[in-house]
Amino acid sequence: MSDAGYGFGGGFALLVVLFILLIIIGATYCGYGY
After folding, report:
1. Contact, 15 vs 23, CB < 8 A?
2. Tens digit of each residue's pLDDT, the chain (34 residues)
3. Contact 7, 1 (CB under 8 A)
4. pTM of the predicted protein model
């Protein structure tokens, strides 16, 4: 488990992606899409 893409950096990136997806889905669901 010593790949460059995984570990702390990969976990943080995954968290950010999930957070952004949550915001986008929430925004569209509530009706303030872009």
Report:
1. no
2. 445 555 566 678 888 899 999 998 888 887 765 5
3. yes
4. 0.52
